[in-house]
Write a structure and sequence with these properties.
By secondary structure, the protein is mainly alpha-helical. The protein folds into 2 domains: 33 residues; 77 residues, no CATH class. It is built from 5 helices and no strands. Helix 4 runs antiparallel to helix 5. The chain is elongated, with a radius of gyration of 23 Å.
Length: 119
């Protein structure tokens, strides 16, 4: 009787662990399907120019953080958001300088441009 209770407890615990970790794996799979790195951003279509920028950013992130996918994903996401912002600002001397000085660093472009406009 004692062995049966122990066996049932182990079985229930194993099922619980399987379900808990199985759902975590499912979440990871779902997140990777819509990741910035893989190029599928919430199912939205990107322009050819933005697709090229994303590829360059992805390559840079892989070189800078080869073993840290989370950092790669975060950095690319932030850069693409800043890229979108820089598309909205008018082309003037400040924007041109930012683009020239930091060609693949849109976060820095945005920061520097905003600082110049603030002064």
């Amino acid at each position: 009787m004692k062995k049966t209770k122990h066996f049932i407890s182990v079985l229930v615990f194993s099922v619980f662990i399987f379900l808990a970790f199985g759902s975590v794996d499912d979440d990871k799979k779902n997140n990777s399907d819509t990741s910035i790195i893989s190029g599928e951003i919430s199912g939205a279509e990107m322009s050819p120019e933005k697709t090229e920028v994303r590829k360059k950013l992805k390559d840079q992130a892989e070189r800078d953080w080869p073993n840290n996918y989370t950092t790669q994903e975060y950095w690319v996401k932030e850069q693409l958001e800043a890229y979108d912002y820089m598309l909205t600002v008018p082309s003037d001397a400040f924007k041109q300088k930012a683009q020239k000085d930091w060609p693949l660093d849109y976060v820095t472009q945005k920061y520097w441009y905003d600082q110049q406009k603030k002064d």
